[in-house]
Amino acid sequence: MSQGGPCLWRPLPQSSQAPSDRSKHACCSHRGDVFVLGGRDSGALGDFWKYSVVRNEWTELDCSSEAAPEELEEHTMVAHEDFLYVFGGMMDSSFSSCRFPLWMFDIRKQMWVDPGGRTGWVQTPTPSNRKGHSAVVLGSTMMIYGGFVDVRGSSEELWTLHFDSMSWSLPGGPRQTPQGPGPRHGHSAAAFQSSMFVFGGLRGLQEQRDLWRWNNSALMWTCVSTKSGPPRLIGHSAVTYRDGMLIFGGGECRDSPQNCLWKFTFHTQRWSRVSSLPGPRPPGKIHHCCAGIGRGYSPSSVPPAQTGRSPQLGGKHKAFQNRCYPAPAFPQGLEDAIELQPLTSSDAQLISRCLTSENKASRRNGSQEAEEAEEEDFSQHLPDLLLVLGGRPVSHHCPISVWQMTLSDG
User: Do the Cβ atoms of 317 and 342 come closer than 8 Å?
Assistant: First the structure.
């Protein structure tokens, strides 16, 4: 089996001002921030947090308004044009049938807003509440697939939310073709160009390891045939990275979590297991979340060249530190020499293969608005990082577990 370029893991210990450790939560990234909502520790959670990667700080956000969701688990959250869209995850009760399971958060205004208050939301047809489904953004739409729907079990419905009109539709009509992945939940999904890729999950009582592609232009499913790849998985996570999809964790059951990292390359349609450089590795995780930070994880931009240079604006160095820490075998003292200065091509190559990054922004005196603008400016120059947040096993009465991964191009 072919191997991807090695990766380097390191834990990011969190302070007490952080969300508690949890599983079955939802998260997504937006301009250098990671948002975490709900989930479970010893019970259902309804808190909402923002993690600034630049500042390495957590901020708890208000979730008390009427437009905010209640406690949710196994829900989804995606970002599109300064709004977060949360779907599903409501507890099964008589209250659930009275409320539609879609919520919107205005990132700029830092407040929950009525999903029907923007352009006149068309109510029918609409999907019902579900858990363990997937949601991705394709262009100006959110695609929702599958999920567990109360006593009816797993669903094979594919729904589209059109952001411009805030209306729902069933691609291909109400009677969707059965030639797709079939009813399932606990799977993963990732978007690339005009397609959504769905992997694994639970179909009935059977765990799966198949890979499916939904072509949103042709409105059809295709089973992607591969001879290798991850084992049967549920409760794993998937993110799009450059020309591929990364899958981390999950397991064949909730009591057998794994810590393997896999990459599926879209153009070659091949899987590779990503090896790890010497050092700590995350424990096996299931029902966790992954969030990608940096241009390589942004589907709308071309990844920058690996130059090894520090972020600059207008030809001037920014007050942003990209401090690198070597693997154990790396020459001692090199980490002190790598800070806000150009590197030789050989140094840059070693760093891309053997180092991870810790990113900090210095705080300057000034208005809150100026600091927020500066922070957003910094976020555009972050290196490519993958964060793994929470998941089973849960450490009770402890801050959320966070691991950082940097991936080599080798």
Answer: no
- Give the whole-angstrom CA distance, residue 52 versus residue 59: 8
Q: What distance in Å separates the CA atoms of residue 351 and residue 403, rounded to the nearest whole number?
A: 19
Return the domain boundaries, the chain: 23-302
Q: Which residue reads 């977060």 in tokens? A: 84
Task: Read off the pLDDT of residues 79-113 as tens digits, 9 standing for 90 and up.
Answer: 999 999 999 999 876 566 668 899 999 999 999 99
Q: How far is CA 262 from CA 94, 286, 384, 389, in A?
A: 41, 15, 17, 17
CA pair distance 234, 185, nearest whole angstrom: 8
Q: How far is C-alpha 179 from the geometric centre of its chain's CA atoms?
A: 28
CA distances from residue 126 to 58, 99, 123, 166 in whole angstroms, order as listed: 35, 12, 6, 11
Residue 308: its pLDDT value, please? 37
241 strand-pairing partners: 244
223: Cα separation from own chain's centroid:
24
In this structure, what token pair is assigned to residue 81?
A: 């044009």
| Residues 6 or more apart whose Cβ sits within 8 Å of residue 13 | 399
How is domain 23-302 classified at the CATH fold level? Neuraminidase (2.120.10)
Cis peptide before 125 (omega within 30 of 0): yes
Rounded average pLDDT over 291-297: 94
Which segments of 280-345 are extended strands (E)?
289-293, 312-313, 316-317, 320-325
> What is this structure's pTM?
0.83
Name the residue with tokens 């879209």. 266
- Encoded tokens for 161: 């939310």
**84 and 35 Cβ atoms separated by less than 8 Å:** yes
Q: Which residue has the tokens 């659930």?
A: 96
Joined tokens for residue 282: 């995350």
Token output for 324? 């690198």
Chain centre distance of CA 330: 31
**Distances in Å between the alpha carbon of 6 and those of 97, 240, 265, 408?**
48, 17, 15, 6
CB contact burial 175-207 (16+ within 10 A = b; e otherwise): ebeeebbbbbbbbbbbbbeebbbbbbbbbeeeb
